[in-house]
Amino acid sequence: MTSSVTRPPGQAADKSESAPSDALHTGTSDVRQLLTRNLRQSGIYVAFVAIIALFAVLTDGVSLSPGNITNVLLQYSYILILAIGMVIVIVSGHIDLSVGSVVALTGATSAVLVIQHGMPWTVGVLAAIGVGLLVGLWQGFWVAYVGIPAFIVTLAGMLLFRGLTLQVLDNISLSPFPPDYQRMANGFLNGLLGGYGYDTFTLVIGALAVVGYAVSGFRTRVARIRYQQPVESFPLFVARVVGVGAVVMAFAWQLAHARGLPIVLIVLAVLILAYGITMKQSVFGRQVYAIGGNLSAAQLSGVNVKKVTFWIFVNMGVLSGVAGVIYSSRSNGAQPAAGNMFELDAIAAAFIGGAAVTGGVGTVVGAMVGGLIMAVMSNGMQLMGVDQSIQAVVKGLVLLLAVAFDVYNKRRAGAAR
Length: 417
Prior knowledge:
Elements: H1 15-18, H2 20-24, H3 28-37, H4 39-58, H5 66-91, H6 99-116, H7 121-146, H8 150-169, H9 179-186, E1 188-189, H10 200-226, H11 234-256, E2 261-262, H12 263-281, H13 283-293, H14 295-300, H15 305-331, H16 342-352, H17 364-383, H18 388-416
Antiparallel strand pairs: 1-2
């Protein structure tokens, strides 16, 4: 979402606004300004790397083993899917407390159709997503058009959909799913290009991802220069691309030495790419940021707030259905207590990843990093044999500190004005 800078009368333009040449050759002060402006997002990446390194040391490298990295991705994939929808809800200034119950309900629906009634696994998948869509329509109507706060609507939904889950399953667990259904969350693509003790296909996909990231970053840089916006120096840009590329290829190398490319990673990549583009480049994405940033201004600008809010919750319902399919596939069944506390993990991922409690701030990529931080912490503590109660304490403190950091930044920015 683009924004304009308004200066008090008589205040001179700064260097980044005075001439195109200044935008082309950003000085040290401009780079410092860029880093300060994006401190929250930049800091989360540094924290992510630091946490990975910490648990690598504490677990004697076990946390970075190919098998463990694959397991982390599989075990937390459904939380990352929920985090994509949750960060959009939070950016708009709302919250959704019902997603865990919706995951349980959609998984139960799929299990009843596929396991009990013997229908094809594709029918179960479509039915689960369809139920998620209906849930989104239901909650979106009450929030957007009736005007009930999302906290109340989704709190009611958390109870309502959990009760419906118990009714659908008749208070019993159902398993197992057929192999094709299980493959969605537990399957791998490997051996497609041959290999020499590792999966070549996974490395090729990793390399293509790095190239795509570099091209996208370069195009964004050129566009910012064209509009005379401050950019990082070219050496710093190259260093960032090389750093990200090294991390991605190291990750791909580990996967290639395990079981290959997880199918669920492809699903995640498609969702991240689609929603990242939507939030950054589409009218809908800009409207979501506008509503969360300043509701009154968005209304005065002609944004149909009710319509956008309605579709935000519809989208959250659909993604909850997708997460329900992945979770039931991963667990090879449906249980009445499935999805318990998933909403808190998704909310924590969004806030740790940079979303603001007041709305208007947050990115899909940031939510993914926040979710991965929670995943790495949970996995690392499990490998160390840390008690579950201590794990909960640590997660709670991390979430509290992330939100406190956001509040501190806002107060500092307000004082600077």
